[in-house]
Amino acid sequence: MSSDKPSAGGKMGLRIHPTVFWATAGVTVFFVIFTLLNLSQMKLFFDASLSFITTSMGWFFVLCVNVYLAVVLYMLFSRHAHIRLGGDDARPDFTYWGWLSMLFSAGMGIGLMFWSVAEPMYHFTSPPWGEAQTAEAARLAMGVTFFHWGFHAWGLYGLMALALAYFAYNKGLPLTVRSTFYPLLGERIHGRAGDLIDTLAAVATLFGLATSLGLGAQQVNAGFAHLFGLPQSTLVQVILIAIITAMATISVVLGVDRGIRRLSQINVIIAGMLLLFVLLAGPTRYLLDALVQNMGIYLRYLPRLSFWTETYSQTAWQHGWTLFYWAWWIAWAPFVGIFVARVSRGRTVREFIGAILLVPTLATFVWLTIFGNAALYVEMFGGGGIAEAVRADVAVALFKLLEHYPMSSITVGLAVCIVITFFVTSSDSASLVVDIITSGGDLDPPKVQRVFWATMEGVIAAVLLMGGGLLALQTAVVATGLPFAAVLLLLSISLVRGMKQDA
Q1: DSSP 84-118
Q2: Cβ proximity of 352 and 162 under 8 Å
Q3: Is 160:106 a contact under the CB 8 Å cutoff?
Q4: Between the ranges 253-262, 344-353, 461-470, where is the mean pLDDT highest?
Q5: Tell me: the pLDDT tens digits for 181-231?
Q6: From CA 123, how far away is CA 145, in angstroms rounded?
Q7: How far is CA 112 from CA 99, 163, 274, 335, 364, in A?
C-alpha cells in the first residue's frame, strides 16, 4: 500500500508522491511524444473522439452539473453553513479584495477574454433554436452565454473547493483530491484508490489548463497580427506559448503572495480599465439596459437550458457548445478547487459558497454584457462586420470590436497585455496546484517541481495546437473531463456524508 505523504526525490531534493507524480508525468510525456510522431492521424482521432463522447455522453454531463449545483445550494442553506474552514478560531489569510481577485483571475480569465465577444456573435448568427440575426436571436445569444458562464460553472468550482478545504482544514488531511473521499474510502485513500483519484485530478488539470493556454495563444497571435502584422500561424502560437510560459515560471518561483496575488490584482485593475473604456466610449445606456435585461433572460432560460439534451431536435448544436463548456469547467475543477481552498482558510461555509456563487458570477455577467452587447449593438445597429470576421477566425473577435472604438491600437495592445497576464496567472496557479497534488498535499513543494509542471502545461498546449488547433483543444478537455465528472459525483456524496457524520 502506498502513502499519500511526499517522499524525497534523491539528490535533486524533490518532495513528491512517487506513484502520482510519475503516473501523471508519464501520461503527459507519452501523449506529447505520441502526438508529435503521429500529427496527421491524431487530427482524425481528435475529431472522432470528440464526436463520440459528446454524442454518447451528453446526458451524463448535463445530469452531473445539475447535481453539483444542487449539492452546493444545499450546503449554503443547511445547518452546516456556519462551519468555519479551519476551526472556530481560524481567520482569513487574505483580504476580500485579494481573495476575490485571485479567484476570478485563476477561474476564468483567459476564457472570458476569448469568448466574451465571440460566443454571443456565434449564437446570434447560429442560435440553438429560432431565426438567426433577429432581436430574439440576440436575447437568446446573451441568455445562452450567461448560462455557460453562470451558476453551474461556479457551483462545481464551489463544490470542489469546499470539499478540499473542509477535509484539509477541519479534518487534518492533506490538501489533495483523495482526502475528499475519506467518508467513502476511509484509510484506503492512502492506497491505490487514492493514487488513481489524484492522478485523474492532475491529468484533468493539465489538459484543462492547456485548453485555456491554447486559446490564449491564438488570441495573443491575433492581437499581434492586428498591431504589427505578425502572421497568424501555429508556429507563431507555439513560440508565444514558449515565451509566456517562461514568464509564468518566474511568477511560480516568486510564490503565491508575491507572484500570483500581485499579478491577479494587476489583472483585475487593467481589465477593469478596458471594461470602463468600452462602457463609456460605447452605447452606455444601451449596455446598462442590457445588463438588467440579460439577468432576466438568463433566469428565464435557466430551467430549460439546464436540462436540455436535444432529445427531440437531434441537432448537434449542444455538442459543440454546452457540453464543451461543462467538460472544460469539470477539467478545471481540481485546479480552481485546490487553489481556492488554498487561499480560503478562515471563511465560513456560507460565506465561502455565497461569495463563490455570487461575486464572480455577477462580475462575469457584467463583463459578458459590456463586450457581448457592445458587439451585438455594432452588428444590429452600427453597420455590422464583427460576426463575419468571427466566423472566419474566432480569435479576432475582441479586436474586431475594438476597431469600432477610438484609440483602437492602444486598446488592442491593452487587451493583449491582459490576455498575457491572465495566461501567466493561470499557468502559475495551475502549476502550483498540480504540484500540490503530485507531492501528496505538500502546500509548499520545491520550486523546481513547480517549474517542471508550468513547462509541461505549455508543452501540452503547444502540442495540441500542432495536432489539430481548436478541435484538439476541445477534444482534450472533453476526454479528460468525462472521467472526472464521475469523480465529482462521488465527491458530492462523500462531502454530504462527511458533514452529516460530524453533525
Answers
A1: BTT-TT---SS-HHHHHHHHHHHHHHHHHHHHHHH
A2: yes
A3: no
A4: 344-353
A5: 999 999 999 999 999 999 999 998 898 888 888 888 888 999 899 888 889
A6: 8
A7: 19, 26, 13, 17, 8
The H-assigned helical ranges of 229-321 are 234-254, 261-281, 284-306, 317-320
Residue given cell 473521499 in the structure block: 181
Residue whose grid cell is 445547518: 79
pLDDT tops 80 at residue 252: no
Q: What nine digits make up the cell of 212?
A: 485555456
Residue 421 cell numbers, joined: 497576464
What's the rounded Cα separation, in Å, for the pair 95 and 82?
A: 20
Q: At what angle do helices 192-228 and 470-502 cross, to 10 degrees?
A: 140
3-state secondary structure (DSSP) of residue 191: coil
Backbone angles phi, psi at 15, to 5 degrees: -125, 95
Distance (Å, whole) CA 85 – CA 351: 10
Q: Which residue, 88, 98, 57, 35, is CA-closest to 340?
A: 98
Give the Cα separation of 394 and 219 in Å (integer): 9
pLDDT, average across residues 111-139: 92
Kindly tell me if the per-residue pLDDT of 299 is higher than 80: yes
Residue 257, pLDDT above cutoff 60:
no
3-state SS assignment for residue 309 = coil
Shortest CA distance to 371 belongs to which of 287, 269, 285, 268?
287
